Structures are given as structure tokens and as C-alpha cells.
Amino acid sequence: MTRAGEQAPRAEPAVGAAAEAVLALRRADGGWTGTLPPSAVSTGAAVFALAFADPDGSAAVLERAARWLRQAREPDGGWADFPGGPSTVNATAIAVAALRLCEPERSDAHVRTGLAWLEHRGGVDVVADKRRCTLKAVCEHYLALAGLYDPARLARMPVELLVLPRALRQKLSFTVPGLAAWGVMQARTWRFGPVRRAVNRLAEPAALRYLRAIHDYEGPEGGVEESPLMVAIVCLGLHRAGRAPDLVAAYRDYLHATVRRDGAWAIDRDIECSVTGYLVPALAEAGLRDDPRLAATRQWIQRCQRAERFPATGCPAGGWGWSVPSGWPETDDTAGAVLALTELGVPPGDPGLRRGVAWLLTMQNRNGSWSCFARDTPSDMDAPCTVLTAHALLALRRVGAGTAACRRAVRWLTRTQRPDGSFGCVWFRDHTAGTARALEALGALGLADSAAARGARDWLLRHQRDDGGWGDGHGAASTAEETAWAVLGLLRTGERAASERGVRWLLAARRADGLWDAAPVGFYFLELTYWCDHIPHAYALQALARYRTEAGCR
To answer: Which of 357, 407, 424, 552 is least enclosed, having the fewest CB within 10 Å?
Structure first.
């Protein structure tokens, strides 16, 4: 039998060592970087953009990128979302197309094995199946440009959406830059009848105005959503359309600036604001709220707040994105910044903190939930998310604001809980993340004995693995991220035995430096999977620190 508090003697030094290791990773400006893995999807997209828009000036970059793609092929002949992961249709189709376009002779064997991998799953036609190829339109276009897919089968981009009234257009969320650029590309390179040509004549100027407005907001570096993938998509579209050469040049420069030494690009450049917002509450629970080393961190977070209303989604000033300068303001990182600043002693009356709270309250959906980018959006890719809603609840509760908003959010959580007690989510894999984060938020609000909390607790207890950790709840191995989230949730309910076993797993999983390995628990969008180096450090440290406190060590 596991005794309450039996891991406390080991947790105490582990918390101190992990906190110091985390602080050693902090940059001189006060933030943390948040590195993501290299991505075959992003690298292949960048190859297409540079091969069309700047083949001579980017020759050396393209050669390194092609070399990386060849080296990143998995043993089964396909490509994965991240090296060492399971091969996916998205990554394989884009890598094959990029190698066929860029270096067909050197890459002939790799192209053939990639096509064979696709053939075993239905051939290149598999990319037309959105259930198996979530990046259907992107993969089809790249394969067609590489001569591997029938161009007549390509989907038309509904560029006319850009002429919708602003209030409606702002609900379309974060995929609109790519839609706008490729819609203009099709208008300029495809043959259409008179009605479609008339629509395109109206839509093209609106699309270009939209892209310029985004560029003006995001800064001259050329980032779009701080994502090399999105930059590459927009760059290719505008170049092939022969439009906005100044923007194309900025996008090219951004891709040159963000390529890694190994020749690859990540899905996002990094998620510096995200991980800083995750790490600060962990350090605070570890007893470092007043540590003078975090003064620079507080100032850095404050500088990252957006002072302007964002034209793409209509969100107010006062939000934070996942990176600067071109990360879009969104719920998760605004909640993270509000939490972090509060933990660092910024008073509720501080103007910046008040704007952050107001941002969260303004962006709450009518049904009580929070999506990532837009309010009440019809987009499935920006659907209401349990993890984001829980994060917003934790931030509002910590700062002591939004009582009515919190009540609406709790009602939404109660309505959307699955019959087995679990919660799904949009931005992390199901179902441990959503269930554990919802449970933590309910417990923080004093609702640990509610039916929803009991259901979530019981689901976590049923899905704890034999080794004491948690995976996704569907057979995946235990991870530091999911185990930490489960422990944080269960500690809010007073559940001791399962928490002890989870803490023991976290202690055993530490590396020699006192930190943890990252696991692919995050979704970028459309099920593109990633890991981030600092996410496990943040939540595992926070879980151990909270356990230590509740065990009476502090």
C-alpha cells in the first residue's frame, strides 16, 4: 500500500534541483525559448516556397533542406511529423513532393520508397481522403506541382470569403492567410469561367489587403503566425500569382532566418511565450515567487503583450501570442501570461494585467468555453477547447476576476464531459490532457466534489498505468506531461494514493540534469503532432512542488 507523503523526502531535493536547472535554461532577456522538433511538413513546404520564389539565392539552403529530408526518412520508407515518430500521410506526401521537385536525381531512391509507402495505403490518391490526410489541400497541391498528382483534382480555394463583412471574416480564424494567398494564386494561374473571374476580381484585392494588414501587425521580419509552415504556404501562393513581391521577399528572408543548422524548419519557430507562461507558475509553486532572477522575466512578459487590436480575428488589445513578434494573440498564452504575472506579484490593478483579464473575458464564447484565436468561430480547427477553457479558468480564479464568466465555463465543462468522465480537447492529444486540466480547474474553483470532478477523477484513476504514470489513456506509454497534468488534477481533489504513484513515476523519470524528456502530446493543427522541450519541465516541476507542499514539507 502506498502511504501518503512517502515520496516527500525525494521530492524536496528534486524540486530544488529542477527549479535551478530550469533557471539555468533562461535567456538573458528573462524568457525561455521553447524549442520544437524539426518538421518534414514544414521543411517540405519551405522547399517549395524557396524553389519557386528564390531558386538561385536559396540554392545552398535548398541543398541542406533536401539533405535533411533524405536523412529524416523513417525505416518504413515514410516520413513522420517529427523524427522518430510514426510515419504519416501528411509528412510523407510533402517530403516526397519536395524531394521530387528540388533534387530528383539525388533523391530518386527516397522518392520511390516514399511513393511505395503511400502505395501501401492506397497510392497518392490517399491524399484525397481527409480522414487520413488532414492537410489534404496542401498535399494535393505540392504533389501536383511535383508532377505526381492530377492538377484537375485540386480543390479551389474559396477566396471569396475575404469579401465577407469584417465581423464574419474575423471568425474564420488562423488558416485564412494560406487560403488568401492560394486563392490569389489560383485566380492568377487557373482558367475560370466569366462568373468565377468576376468573383476573383472582387476577392483578390481583399485578399491582398488582408495579407498586408497581417504583415503590418506582425512586423517587418516576414513572420506569419511565427510559423515557417504558414510563411512558406503564403510565400508560394503570392510568388506564383506574381503579386506583392515585397511580401514575398520578406517571407523569403524569414525562411532564411529560421532554417536550422541541420537544414530543417520547425512547425513554429519556437513557443517562447508559451513555455515562459508555463514555467513561471511552476517556479512560483517551487518557492521562487520572490526570486530576484525573475524580475527580468516579469518585464519580458509585459513587453510581449500586444498593444493593438488584431485585425485578423478582431480580438482586443491586451492579449499574448506564443511568440514575438508574429504569434497571434490567443487564449492559452494570454491565460499563461496573466497567471505568470500574478504569481510574480503584479497587482490586479496593474493596467497591463487588467487588459489581459479583459481580453480573456471578451474572448469567451457565448456557450461559456474558450477557443484559441477567435470568439464563436464556426471553424472546427478553432473549436472550443477544454484545456484552454481550464487554463482561462485558472488564470481568472488566481487574479480574482470574472466570477460570472467562470460559472458559464463550468456549465460548459459539465455539458461537454463524456459519459465515461473524460474530456476531449483540441490542442493536445486525447484524453488525459483535457480530463486532468478540467479536473484541476474544477478543484481550484472549490468544485472537487461536483459530479463532473468526480467523473474526471475516476477516469484518471481507471487509466493510471501499471508503472504509476499516465499516457493518453488509450494505451500510449506514460509521459512526463500527462503524468504531471494528472497529478496536478488529482491533488486538487485530495486523492493521495494515485498521486503518490504518479509522483514516484515523475521522480524516476528524471534525467541526469534533473529535468524530463518531452513527448509528442501537442497538436499544432489538423493533428500535426509535436513535442516541446520545456513543457514537461514546467508541469512536472509544478506537480512535484504542489505535492511537496501538500505533504507538509513547505
So the answer is: 552
